Amino acid sequence: MTITCLNHQRSHEFICYQCNSLMCSKCISGHSKDHPDHSDQFEHIDDIKDSLSTLKLDDIIDTTVKNENDYSKNNSDSNSNNFSQINNKLKSLWESLRSSTSRYQRLSTTENEIKEHFEQLHQYLIREEHKLQRDIINDKHTITNQIDNNINHLKYLINIIMLFNKFNSSNDSNNDDKNKDSYSSNSVSTIEDTTSLYSTTTIMESIQSSSSLQSFINHSNQTLFNEHLDAFNIEELLEQHSNDTTSLLLDIIHKYNNQFNKLADAITENNNLTLSSYKLTIKQPDFNQLNSIIEQSIKLDIIESTESMNTKKQ
Ligand SMILES: [Zn+2]
Ligand SMILES: [Zn+2]
C-alpha cells in the first residue's frame, strides 16, 4: 500500500473504518457525498493520534449494566465524545471479555449444581449396591478363610505322605544318611511362606481345573506341595527321634491332630451357621419411572437470553 493517494498525489490522512480504506483530504469529501452514512465512520490521523496520546487504559471500564439497553446507550455516548474508534473498540472488547467471563462462571456454577445433584443419586445407588453385596462378600470371605485353612490342612497331610514315601524308599536302599542330607539341603522355606506365594484366587482356579486331588497336587508341585521344601525341619526331628523314622512319623501325625482338629471343627460349625444360599432376581429397572423421579427433582430450562454475546456488535 503506497503512502500517497494514487488519484490525487496527496498523503493519506483519513481512514474509513467502514470501508477500511485510506484516503487523502480530497478523497474524503467525495467519500462523504457518496456514502453519507460513513460520515461518523472515518477519522483523521491527527484525531487518532490525539486520542491515543490521551488514552488512559484506566478509563477503559465495563460500564455495561445488566441489560442490553444500557449497553447501547453507553456505546452511543462514547461515540458522541471525541473518542477514536480504537478507544471504542478497546472498551467494547473489554466489556465483551468481562461479560463472557461472568457468563462462563455462571454456567460453571449451574453445571456444578447439576453434578452435585446427581452425585447424591450416585451415592444412593452405591449404598444400595453395597447393601445387597454385603452378605455375599462376607460369605466369600468366610469361604476364602475356609479354603486357606483346608489348604494348610491338606499341605500338612501331603507333606506327611511325601515324607513317608521318602522314608520308605530310603529304607529300601538302606541309605539313610544320604537321604537325610537331601532333606536339609533345600530347607529354605516354611509352610507359611509357600502359602503366601499363591493367592486363594489362584488356588481356586487350580482346584477348578483339576479333576482329582492328584492332578491338583501335580499342578501345585512347585509351590504348595513342593517336596524340596522341608516343612517339618526333618533334620532336627530325626535327631530328636534318634533317626527312628517311625517314631518321627507318629510324632508329626500327633502334632497334625493337635493343630488342625479343633480348628477344623470350629470352621465347619461356623460355616454351617453363617453360609446361606441366595436367589437373585433381576428385573430391568423401570427407567420411565426413574426418569419421572429425576425430572421431578431437577430441571434445566432455557430462559430467554437477556444478554447477547457481544461479538456481533463489534
Ligand atoms: Zn467508507
Ligand atoms: Zn485522494
Automatic annotation (TrEMBL):
Listed name of the protein: B box-type domain-containing protein
